[in-house]
Protein backbone atom coordinates (compact mmCIF):
# COMPACT_ATOMS: atom_id res chain seq x y z
CA UNK A 1 0.00 0.00 0.00
CA UNK A 2 1.32 3.43 -0.93
CA UNK A 3 1.19 5.89 1.94
CA UNK A 4 0.85 9.59 1.18
CA UNK A 5 2.22 11.93 3.83
CA UNK A 6 0.97 15.50 3.76
CA UNK A 7 3.61 18.11 4.51
CA UNK A 8 2.58 21.07 6.69
CA UNK A 9 2.90 23.32 3.64
CA UNK A 10 0.56 21.12 1.60
CA UNK A 11 -1.97 20.99 4.43
CA UNK A 12 -1.90 24.79 4.78
CA UNK A 13 -2.39 25.13 1.05
CA UNK A 14 -5.26 22.65 1.09
CA UNK A 15 -6.76 24.72 3.91
CA UNK A 16 -6.62 27.83 1.75
CA UNK A 17 -8.12 26.03 -1.24
CA UNK A 18 -10.91 24.56 0.90
CA UNK A 19 -11.77 28.05 2.15
CA UNK A 20 -11.73 29.39 -1.38
CA UNK A 21 -13.87 26.56 -2.71
CA UNK A 22 -16.49 27.09 -0.03
CA UNK A 23 -16.45 30.84 -0.56
CA UNK A 24 -17.16 30.10 -4.20
CA UNK A 25 -20.61 29.04 -3.05
CA UNK A 26 -21.72 31.63 -0.51
CA UNK A 27 -21.06 35.28 0.17
CA UNK A 28 -20.89 36.22 3.83
CA UNK A 29 -23.97 35.46 5.87
CA UNK A 30 -25.41 38.57 7.44
CA UNK A 31 -27.03 38.89 10.83
CA UNK A 32 -27.10 35.94 13.21
CA UNK A 33 -24.44 33.36 12.22
CA UNK A 34 -25.72 29.84 11.62
CA UNK A 35 -24.98 27.30 14.36
CA UNK A 36 -21.84 25.38 13.44
CA UNK A 37 -22.20 22.31 15.57
CA UNK A 38 -25.00 20.77 17.59
CA UNK A 39 -25.24 17.55 19.50
CA UNK A 40 -26.81 14.75 17.43
CA UNK A 41 -30.49 14.02 18.17
CA UNK A 42 -31.15 11.38 20.81
CA UNK A 43 -31.79 7.91 19.45
CA UNK A 44 -35.36 6.71 19.67
CA UNK A 45 -35.97 3.87 22.18
CA UNK A 46 -35.76 0.47 20.61
CA UNK A 47 -39.05 -1.41 20.16
CA UNK A 48 -37.58 -4.49 18.52
CA UNK A 49 -37.94 -7.97 19.94
CA UNK A 50 -35.61 -10.93 19.69
CA UNK A 51 -35.73 -12.30 16.17
CA UNK A 52 -36.81 -8.99 14.58
CA UNK A 53 -34.71 -7.52 11.78
CA UNK A 54 -32.44 -4.73 12.94
CA UNK A 55 -33.54 -1.35 11.60
CA UNK A 56 -31.41 1.77 11.68
CA UNK A 57 -33.43 4.84 12.82
CA UNK A 58 -34.03 7.26 9.95
CA UNK A 59 -32.19 10.17 11.54
CA UNK A 60 -30.42 12.67 9.26
CA UNK A 61 -27.06 11.20 10.20
CA UNK A 62 -28.12 7.69 9.21
CA UNK A 63 -30.30 8.13 6.12
CA UNK A 64 -27.57 6.84 3.84
CA UNK A 65 -26.65 3.87 6.03
CA UNK A 66 -28.24 0.56 5.15
CA UNK A 67 -29.37 -2.06 7.58
CA UNK A 68 -26.60 -4.32 8.78
CA UNK A 69 -27.03 -7.76 7.26
CA UNK A 70 -28.86 -10.12 9.61
CA UNK A 71 -26.39 -12.89 8.94
CA UNK A 72 -22.65 -12.47 8.58
CA UNK A 73 -22.51 -8.97 10.07
CA UNK A 74 -21.52 -7.33 6.76
CA UNK A 75 -22.49 -3.68 6.50
CA UNK A 76 -23.66 -2.39 3.12
CA UNK A 77 -24.31 1.24 2.29
CA UNK A 78 -26.16 2.91 -0.57
CA UNK A 79 -23.21 5.27 -0.90
CA UNK A 80 -20.73 2.46 -1.66
CA UNK A 81 -19.33 2.91 -5.17
CA UNK A 82 -16.42 1.50 -7.12
CA UNK A 83 -13.40 3.72 -7.85
CA UNK A 84 -14.42 3.65 -11.52
CA UNK A 85 -17.92 4.93 -10.70
CA UNK A 86 -16.53 7.68 -8.50
CA UNK A 87 -14.04 8.73 -11.20
CA UNK A 88 -16.79 8.76 -13.86
CA UNK A 89 -19.07 10.87 -11.66
CA UNK A 90 -16.30 13.36 -10.93
CA UNK A 91 -15.50 13.62 -14.63
CA UNK A 92 -19.14 14.29 -15.49
CA UNK A 93 -19.45 16.82 -12.66
CA UNK A 94 -16.31 18.62 -13.78
CA UNK A 95 -17.62 18.81 -17.34
CA UNK A 96 -20.89 20.28 -16.07
CA UNK A 97 -19.00 22.81 -13.91
CA UNK A 98 -16.87 23.94 -16.86
CA UNK A 99 -20.02 25.34 -18.47
CA UNK A 100 -20.09 28.02 -15.78
CA UNK A 101 -16.43 28.58 -14.84
CA UNK A 102 -13.34 28.08 -16.98
CA UNK A 103 -9.65 28.92 -17.28
CA UNK A 104 -8.50 30.39 -20.60
CA UNK A 105 -4.93 29.52 -21.57
CA UNK A 106 -2.53 30.69 -24.27
CA UNK A 107 -0.84 28.46 -26.85
CA UNK A 108 1.83 27.52 -24.30
CA UNK A 109 -0.78 26.41 -21.77
CA UNK A 110 -0.24 29.37 -19.42
CA UNK A 111 -3.42 30.63 -17.67
CA UNK A 112 -4.60 33.98 -19.02
CA UNK A 113 -7.91 34.48 -17.26
CA UNK A 114 -10.55 32.83 -15.10
CA UNK A 115 -14.04 33.46 -16.48
CA UNK A 116 -17.63 32.92 -15.39
CA UNK A 117 -20.55 32.54 -17.78
CA UNK A 118 -24.05 33.85 -18.36
CA UNK A 119 -26.15 31.02 -19.81
CA UNK A 120 -29.62 31.76 -21.24
CA UNK A 121 -32.58 29.36 -20.96
CA UNK A 122 -35.81 29.61 -22.94
CA UNK A 123 -39.03 27.57 -23.18
CA UNK A 124 -39.11 24.72 -25.68
CA UNK A 125 -42.47 25.81 -27.06
CA UNK A 126 -44.39 29.07 -27.60
CA UNK A 127 -46.57 28.82 -24.48
CA UNK A 128 -44.34 31.26 -22.54
CA UNK A 129 -43.13 33.42 -25.37
CA UNK A 130 -40.53 36.00 -24.39
CA UNK A 131 -39.44 34.28 -21.18
CA UNK A 132 -35.67 34.17 -20.69
CA UNK A 133 -33.94 32.98 -17.51
CA UNK A 134 -30.19 33.62 -17.35
CA UNK A 135 -27.93 31.80 -14.89
CA UNK A 136 -25.25 34.35 -14.03
CA UNK A 137 -22.23 32.70 -12.43
CA UNK A 138 -20.32 34.52 -9.70
CA UNK A 139 -17.06 34.28 -7.86
CA UNK A 140 -17.22 36.25 -4.64
CA UNK A 141 -13.81 37.88 -4.94
CA UNK A 142 -12.79 39.18 -8.35
CA UNK A 143 -11.35 42.04 -10.39
CA UNK A 144 -13.09 45.39 -10.09
CA UNK A 145 -13.77 45.40 -13.84
CA UNK A 146 -15.62 42.08 -13.44
CA UNK A 147 -18.18 43.57 -11.08
CA UNK A 148 -18.48 46.69 -13.25
CA UNK A 149 -19.51 44.49 -16.18
CA UNK A 150 -22.01 42.59 -14.05
CA UNK A 151 -23.56 45.83 -12.77
CA UNK A 152 -24.00 46.99 -16.35
CA UNK A 153 -25.55 43.67 -17.42
CA UNK A 154 -28.01 43.64 -14.49
CA UNK A 155 -29.65 46.86 -15.71
CA UNK A 156 -31.13 44.92 -18.66
CA UNK A 157 -33.20 42.51 -16.53
CA UNK A 158 -36.74 42.81 -15.20
CA UNK A 159 -35.53 41.15 -12.01
CA UNK A 160 -32.22 39.88 -10.60
CA UNK A 161 -32.55 37.08 -8.03
CA UNK A 162 -29.48 37.10 -5.80
CA UNK A 163 -27.97 34.84 -3.16
CA UNK A 164 -27.17 35.88 0.35
CA UNK A 165 -27.84 33.96 3.55
CA UNK A 166 -29.37 36.88 5.40
CA UNK A 167 -32.50 37.84 7.37
CA UNK A 168 -35.55 38.58 5.26
CA UNK A 169 -35.74 42.25 4.38
CA UNK A 170 -31.98 42.83 4.64
CA UNK A 171 -30.83 45.78 2.52
CA UNK A 172 -27.23 45.86 1.33
CA UNK A 173 -26.00 49.45 1.02
CA UNK A 174 -23.60 50.52 -1.70
CA UNK A 175 -20.10 49.50 -0.71
CA UNK A 176 -21.31 46.54 1.32
CA UNK A 177 -22.41 46.16 4.92
CA UNK A 178 -20.70 48.69 7.17
CA UNK A 179 -22.06 47.61 10.57
CA UNK A 180 -23.52 44.63 12.39
CA UNK A 181 -21.75 42.00 10.33
CA UNK A 182 -18.99 40.33 12.25
CA UNK A 183 -19.52 36.88 10.77
CA UNK A 184 -16.23 34.92 10.67
CA UNK A 185 -16.85 33.91 7.05
CA UNK A 186 -16.91 37.59 6.13
CA UNK A 187 -13.54 38.13 7.78
CA UNK A 188 -12.08 35.22 5.80
CA UNK A 189 -13.51 36.53 2.55
CA UNK A 190 -12.04 39.96 3.10
CA UNK A 191 -8.68 38.46 4.02
CA UNK A 192 -8.71 36.41 0.80
CA UNK A 193 -9.57 39.57 -1.13
CA UNK A 194 -6.53 41.35 0.31
CA UNK A 195 -4.15 38.41 -0.20
CA UNK A 196 -5.11 38.11 -3.87
CA UNK A 197 -5.44 41.86 -4.52
CA UNK A 198 -9.05 41.48 -5.65
CA UNK A 199 -12.40 43.10 -4.85
CA UNK A 200 -15.23 41.71 -2.71
CA UNK A 201 -18.59 41.05 -4.38
CA UNK A 202 -20.75 42.62 -1.64
CA UNK A 203 -18.72 45.82 -1.83
CA UNK A 204 -18.83 46.17 -5.62
CA UNK A 205 -22.21 44.84 -6.84
CA UNK A 206 -24.99 47.44 -6.53
CA UNK A 207 -27.72 45.64 -4.60
CA UNK A 208 -29.73 48.85 -4.10
CA UNK A 209 -31.31 48.66 -7.57
CA UNK A 210 -35.09 48.22 -7.65
CA UNK A 211 -34.89 45.05 -9.76
CA UNK A 212 -32.79 43.16 -7.16
CA UNK A 213 -34.78 40.53 -5.23
CA UNK A 214 -33.40 38.40 -2.40
CA UNK A 215 -33.76 34.67 -3.22
CA UNK A 216 -31.99 32.75 -0.47
CA UNK A 217 -32.42 31.34 3.02
CA UNK A 218 -32.36 33.29 6.25
CA UNK A 219 -29.63 32.30 8.75
CA UNK A 220 -32.31 30.59 10.86
CA UNK A 221 -33.61 28.56 7.89
CA UNK A 222 -30.07 27.66 6.92
CA UNK A 223 -29.11 26.51 10.42
CA UNK A 224 -32.35 24.57 10.89
CA UNK A 225 -31.96 22.72 7.59
CA UNK A 226 -28.33 21.86 8.32
CA UNK A 227 -29.32 20.51 11.73
CA UNK A 228 -32.13 18.40 10.25
CA UNK A 229 -29.69 16.93 7.75
CA UNK A 230 -26.96 16.33 10.30
CA UNK A 231 -24.66 18.76 8.48
CA UNK A 232 -22.24 21.40 9.74
CA UNK A 233 -19.81 23.94 8.35
CA UNK A 234 -16.92 22.04 9.90
CA UNK A 235 -18.03 18.80 8.25
CA UNK A 236 -18.27 20.55 4.89
CA UNK A 237 -14.96 22.34 5.39
CA UNK A 238 -12.99 19.21 6.21
CA UNK A 239 -14.56 17.35 3.27
CA UNK A 240 -13.22 20.02 0.92
CA UNK A 241 -9.85 20.13 2.66
CA UNK A 242 -9.52 16.34 2.39
CA UNK A 243 -10.53 16.42 -1.27
CA UNK A 244 -7.91 19.08 -1.96
CA UNK A 245 -5.14 17.06 -0.28
CA UNK A 246 -6.15 13.91 -2.17
CA UNK A 247 -6.26 15.84 -5.43
CA UNK A 248 -2.73 17.18 -4.94
CA UNK A 249 -1.48 13.71 -4.05
CA UNK A 250 -2.91 12.09 -7.17
CA UNK A 251 -2.31 14.79 -9.76
CA UNK A 252 0.69 14.49 -12.03
CA UNK A 253 2.43 17.71 -12.94
CA UNK A 254 0.36 19.66 -10.42
CA UNK A 255 1.40 22.42 -8.07
CA UNK A 256 4.42 21.34 -6.04
CA UNK A 257 5.34 22.55 -2.59
CA UNK A 258 8.15 24.56 -4.19
CA UNK A 259 5.74 26.28 -6.58
CA UNK A 260 3.37 27.16 -3.74
CA UNK A 261 6.18 28.50 -1.56
CA UNK A 262 7.52 30.49 -4.51
CA UNK A 263 4.11 32.09 -4.95
CA UNK A 264 3.75 32.87 -1.22
CA UNK A 265 7.12 34.62 -1.01
CA UNK A 266 7.23 36.14 -4.50
CA UNK A 267 7.43 39.95 -4.80
CA UNK A 268 4.38 39.54 -7.07
CA UNK A 269 2.60 37.30 -4.55
CA UNK A 270 -0.98 38.18 -5.48
CA UNK A 271 -0.47 37.37 -9.15
CA UNK A 272 1.37 34.09 -8.49
CA UNK A 273 -1.19 32.93 -5.92
CA UNK A 274 -4.10 33.80 -8.23
CA UNK A 275 -2.62 31.64 -10.97
CA UNK A 276 -2.12 28.65 -8.71
CA UNK A 277 -5.50 29.04 -7.00
CA UNK A 278 -7.37 29.47 -10.29
CA UNK A 279 -6.00 26.15 -11.51
CA UNK A 280 -6.95 24.52 -8.22
CA UNK A 281 -10.52 25.82 -8.56
CA UNK A 282 -10.67 24.38 -12.05
CA UNK A 283 -9.43 20.99 -10.85
CA UNK A 284 -11.93 21.00 -7.97
CA UNK A 285 -14.85 21.42 -10.38
CA UNK A 286 -15.66 17.72 -10.34
CA UNK A 287 -15.05 17.44 -6.62
CA UNK A 288 -17.59 20.07 -5.60
CA UNK A 289 -20.36 17.54 -6.17
CA UNK A 290 -19.20 15.79 -2.99
CA UNK A 291 -20.85 18.60 -1.02
CA UNK A 292 -24.16 17.38 -2.40
CA UNK A 293 -24.08 13.61 -1.99
CA UNK A 294 -27.02 11.33 -2.86
CA UNK A 295 -29.43 13.27 -0.61
CA UNK A 296 -28.34 16.74 -1.66
CA UNK A 297 -27.11 19.40 0.77
CA UNK A 298 -28.17 22.61 2.43
CA UNK A 299 -25.41 24.78 0.97
CA UNK A 300 -26.32 23.90 -2.63
CA UNK A 301 -29.52 21.90 -3.14
CA UNK A 302 -31.73 23.40 -0.45
CA UNK A 303 -30.66 26.97 -1.18
CA UNK A 304 -31.25 26.38 -4.90
CA UNK A 305 -34.72 25.07 -4.07
CA UNK A 306 -35.42 28.26 -2.10
CA UNK A 307 -34.16 30.43 -4.96
CA UNK A 308 -36.40 28.69 -7.46
CA UNK A 309 -39.45 29.15 -5.25
CA UNK A 310 -38.82 32.88 -5.72
CA UNK A 311 -38.24 32.31 -9.45
CA UNK A 312 -41.69 30.69 -9.78
CA UNK A 313 -43.30 33.70 -8.09
CA UNK A 314 -41.53 36.15 -10.39
CA UNK A 315 -42.55 34.23 -13.51
CA UNK A 316 -46.13 34.07 -12.22
CA UNK A 317 -45.99 37.86 -11.70
CA UNK A 318 -45.28 38.31 -15.41
CA UNK A 319 -41.52 38.96 -15.35
CA UNK A 320 -39.94 37.94 -18.66
CA UNK A 321 -36.21 38.62 -18.49
CA UNK A 322 -34.84 37.16 -15.27
CA UNK A 323 -31.29 36.75 -13.96
CA UNK A 324 -30.39 34.24 -11.24
CA UNK A 325 -27.13 35.57 -9.78
CA UNK A 326 -25.48 32.81 -7.74
CA UNK A 327 -22.03 31.34 -7.13
CA UNK A 328 -20.82 29.28 -10.08
CA UNK A 329 -20.79 26.15 -7.90
CA UNK A 330 -24.60 26.29 -7.65
CA UNK A 331 -25.30 26.44 -11.37
CA UNK A 332 -24.95 22.79 -12.52
CA UNK A 333 -27.74 21.84 -10.09
CA UNK A 334 -29.76 24.90 -11.11
CA UNK A 335 -29.50 23.91 -14.76
CA UNK A 336 -30.97 20.49 -13.94
CA UNK A 337 -33.87 22.17 -12.16
CA UNK A 338 -34.51 24.58 -15.03
CA UNK A 339 -34.66 21.80 -17.61
CA UNK A 340 -36.64 19.32 -15.48
CA UNK A 341 -39.00 21.55 -13.47
CA UNK A 342 -39.38 24.61 -15.71
CA UNK A 343 -38.94 22.87 -19.08
CA UNK A 344 -36.40 25.44 -20.27
CA UNK A 345 -33.54 24.61 -22.60
CA UNK A 346 -30.04 26.16 -22.62
CA UNK A 347 -28.99 28.44 -25.44
CA UNK A 348 -26.59 31.36 -25.72
CA UNK A 349 -23.48 31.44 -23.51
CA UNK A 350 -21.52 34.61 -22.73
CA UNK A 351 -18.25 34.72 -20.79
CA UNK A 352 -16.99 37.45 -18.45
CA UNK A 353 -13.43 37.67 -17.15
CA UNK A 354 -13.39 37.43 -13.35
CA UNK A 355 -9.63 37.19 -12.74
CA UNK A 356 -6.93 38.57 -15.04
CA UNK A 357 -4.11 36.01 -14.91
CA UNK A 358 -1.82 37.56 -17.55
CA UNK A 359 1.72 38.63 -16.84
CA UNK A 360 1.87 42.40 -16.27
CA UNK A 361 4.06 42.85 -19.35
CA UNK A 362 1.31 41.26 -21.52
CA UNK A 363 -1.64 43.26 -20.22
Explain what this protein looks like in three dimensions.
Strand 2 (111-123) and strand 3 form a beta hairpin. The N and C termini lie far apart (48 Å). 39% of the residues lie in helices and 15% in strands. The protein has one domain (8-36, 81-358). Helix 1 (8-23) crosses helix 7 and helix 6 (219-229) crosses helix 10. The strands form 2 sheets. Strands 1, 2, 3, 5, 7, 8 and 9 form a 7-stranded mixed β-sheet that branches. A two-stranded antiparallel sheet has the order 4-6. The longest helix is centred in the last third of the chain and has 19 residues, at 298-316. The protein is an alpha/beta fold and 363 residues long.
